Each structure stands twice: as structure tokens, then as C-alpha cells.
Amino acid sequence: MTKFWQEEAVERLVRRQFGRVTWAQLKSLDVADGTIGTWTRHGYLIRVLPKVYAVGHTAPSRLADLWAAVLYAGPGAMLSHGSSAHQRGLIMYAPAEIHVSTPRVKIRSIRGVVRVRCGRELPRSSYEGIPTTTDAQTVLDLAADSRDTKLVRRALAVLEYRDELDIQAIEAMCGKGRAGSRALREALEAHQPELAHTNGELEEAFLHLCERFGLRVPLFNRWMYGFPVDAYWPEQNLIAEVDGVGAHSKAAQLRNDRRKELTLREHGHAVMRYDWALVSAASEQVATDLARLGVPKLT
User: Which of 159, 189, 269, 285 has a beta carbon 3.0–4.6 Å from 264's, enabling a disulfide?
Assistant: First the structure.
């Protein structure tokens, strides 16, 4: 391979991997040890993980960090568990460590950086060009790692919202001895599509409040008369606005809130407001208020 084509091949590979490359990949492209050493001394290659390099610079990049973790775990590796779920947009927050699975058996995790599950021969999918586990495997692994089913339920709701929820494939993943099977079955039994419409932790907590006290779950984030409303019970003409800390404290936002409430009342809707303190610390009182306003109990 000529030097020109060698450099072009390296550039194509690095571009596909968001600026990350491994020592083994460079060697497979016939880059000599001396060249690798020169690039390293001159700062063109910058070590970010064992035998994984940033090329040219180390500017912060979530996708580059994910690629580095996958490359560190070796050929056949992929994002899995919470990292796959976050990358695929199924949960709101990424785990503190990047989770990867690999068919290799002797790859160590790096505490605080990457958690590796070894010896996992799994089919690979991809999202935004990064190898990941499939949807079904991702929700099973998420269930195995989760202390409760809320994260898994949200992932299922997002999949349904995208018209990508394959119940048959997910149920087929569950089985005796498979970690997460019980939690995943529980999440399927409690499946709530409206979770995909909630915007942030407070709205999600408000949905779970309704479930906990046996109240009908509202529609979330529907547009009415030119405004988005947080929670809406159509039959009761009732709207609940849930306000996070600081979200509605600016003068412009307060004016917008008042205008929205005035418009909604003009159209015959009752509008209630509950903040984080009420939803989290006075949930029973909020539930009683909603029931008094006509939100029906589920039988």
C-alpha cells in the first residue's frame, strides 16, 4: 500500500469512528510501528484508552467516547445495557460508565470509564453508526441492570411511539436463567405508552403518581389552541401543568403561562398547577385533589 492510499484509508476509518482508532487497526492498514511512534510523539495520535487513540485532537465528543469504548473492547464489541438504550434514545440519561458487550473473554473494565461484559456472542445492530445491541436485547439488559421497571417501561413506550415495539421478539428474549427476564415481563404487563410523551423527570413522576393512586393516566404534551399542555384529561376538560424548579420563574415565561391559562379557561377547561414539591412530597394530597376534580379511578 502506497503512503498516499495508506493515509487515505486511515482517514476514512477514523472519520467513520468519530476520530478514534486502535493500534490493531493501524497495523492492519500496514502503518509501521515507527510511524505510529512518530505520530504519537508529535501529538497526532493521543492515547485515550489502552491501545485506542484520538486522531488529531481530543475535543469533547459523546460519540467519540462511545466509539473509543467499543474499540477498546475489541472486534465484535457493541454498546449494550444502559449505554445502548441511551444511544438509541430509549432512556433520558446515560449511565455513568459506558457499557459495552464483547465476544472476547479477557477484556477488563476500566472503573469510572467503561464497563465490559465479556463472552457475549450477540447479534449487532447500530445507531448513528455505532454498533449496539438490538432493541430486544437492549431492553432485556436494561431490565437486568435496573432496580425497578421505570426505565424499562419508558424504553418500551418510546419503541411503541416509534412503531418499533416488537412484543414477540422481546418476549422471546425472556427465559429461565436469563438475567432481567422477570423485570422485563413486569414492565410489559405494566406497559404505558404515554410515558413516551412525558418531558422530563417531573412529568414522568406525575404519571407514576396517577398510577400509584389508581387514577386514569392523562395525555401528555398535546397541543391545544396553540399551546402545549403538560397533562390533559379530555372527558373531564381538566388540564394539569407541572412546574419544575425554576422552569416558570422568568417574567416572560410567567406571562406566557398566564396567557395560556386564560386561553384554556376561555375554552371551558379547568387548569391546575402542581410543582415538584407537591408531586414528590405531597403526592397523596395531589391525588385527592385530582379525584375531587373528577379524574376517574381505575377499576
Answer: 269
Provide the pairing of β-strand 238-243 with 45-49.
Answer: unpaired
Of 148, 167, 193, which closes a domain? 193
Angle (nearest 5°) at CA 22 between 111 and 108: 25
- pLDDT tens figures, 197-206: 999 999 999 9
226 SS3 class: coil
Residues 119 and 51 in one domain: no
Please spell the DSSP secondary structure of 55-80, one letter per residue: ES-----HHHHHHHHHHHH-TT-EE-
Burial category of 224 from C-beta neighbours within 10 Å (exposed 0-12, middle 13-18, buried 19 and up): middle
**In this structure, are 205 and 251 located in the same domain?**
yes
Nine-digit cell at 105? 473473554
Model-level pTM? 0.88
Q: What is the pLDDT of residues 150-192, one digit of tens each?
A: 999 999 999 999 999 999 999 999 988 899 999 999 999 999 9
Would you say 155 and 161 are in contact if contact means Cβ atoms under 8 Å apart?
no
Using CA atoms in the order 73, 79, 80, 84, what is the torsion angle rounded to 10 degrees? 160
- Total domains in the chain come to 3
Residues 171 and 279 in one domain: no
Q: Which long-range contacts (CB under 8 A, 24 or more apart) does 243-249 make?
A: 243/202, 243/273, 243/274, 243/275, 243/276, 244/200, 244/202, 244/275, 244/276, 245/275, 245/276
What CATH number is given to the structural domain containing 224?
A: 3.40.960.10
C-alpha cell at 102: 464483547
The residues facing 47 across adjacent strands are 53
Say what the pLDDT of residue 110 is.
Answer: 97
Which of 166-180, 217-231, 244-258 has the largest mean confidence?
217-231
Q: Do 105 and 121 share a domain, yes or no?
A: yes
